[in-house]
Input
Amino acid sequence: MNIIQKLNPFKQCKELNLGIWQCPSFLFLLIGLITITAMISTYFIAKLYTELEIVSLIIALVAIIIIIFTIGHFIVQSVEQIAQANQMKTEFISIASHQLRTPLASIKWSLNSLMNKQDNNYLQNIYQANEQMIKLVNDLLKASRIEQSKLLTEIKPFNINKLSQNIANEFQTLIQANNIKLELNLDKNLDIIRADKDMIKIVMQNLVSNAVQYIKKSGKIIISTKQKNKNIIWQIQDNGIGIPTNQQKYIFKKFFRVESSLKFKTRGTGLGLYISQAIIKEHKGKIWFKSKSDKGTTFYFSIPLTKKI
Output
C-alpha cells in the first residue's frame, strides 16, 4: 500500500504544490505510457503494412519522438523549479540563522552585564534586539499567509497623508542619526482612501526602512503623494546606492537581497518587498520602482479609489 502511495503522481503534485503538467512523477509516467504505446504500435504497423508504407511509419515515429522530447522539456523545467525552491530555502535558512543569532547574542551579553551592573544602555540593546526578532517572525508569518492566500485585509477609510506623517515621525530618530534630510511633499487635496491601514503602514515602513539603510553617509529622502486617474500614488525617493540593473528584475522575489546589501551588511531577510508587493496586489494596486546605481531609487505604489476591494 505504501509503494502504491509513493507511486501516486497526484499525491506528489499536491505535496509539492505543482500543477499536474509540472509534476515530475506524472510526466515520467506519461512518457512511459507513450513509449509503450509507440513500441506496440510500431510492432503492429510493421506487421500489417508493406515496405511501401515504411515512410508513414517513420513519420509517425518522428512525431512520437517530438512529443517525448516536448514532455521531457517540461520535466526539466519542473525539476529546475524544485531545485530553485530548495536553493531559496537554503538561502533563507542561512539569512534567518544569521539575523536571529546576532540579536540573541546581544540579548545574552546584555543580560550578563545587567546581572553585575544596572545600565540603561544594556536595556536599550535588549529592546532593539527583541524588536529585530519580532520583525523577522512577523515577516515570516506574513510570507506564509501570502503563500496560503490568507492575507486578510480590513478595509476602512483613512487619510494617507496623515499616515505618511506618522511614518515620518516614527523614523525621525533613525533618519537624524544617519544624517539624512527628510522632505514631505503631500498633496492636501487627496480624497480619503479605502484600504487596510495597518497593511499600507507595513508597506510604507518597509520602503522607508530600505531607503534609510541604503543611503551611506548623508543623503536625502522625499516622500510624496498625489492623485491621478482615480488612483492615489505614494512615492519615496532617495539618493542612495541604487539597485544594479542586472538585479532589478529579482527585486520583488522572496528572500532576494541585492549584492550591495551584503556588501554594506544591511539588516533584512529579503521578505520586505515581497510582502509589500503582495499587500498592494491585495488592494488591486500596483508597485514599481526606478533606480540607477550610485544615483538612487524611487519606489511607487498606487491604490485605486474604489468602494470595493
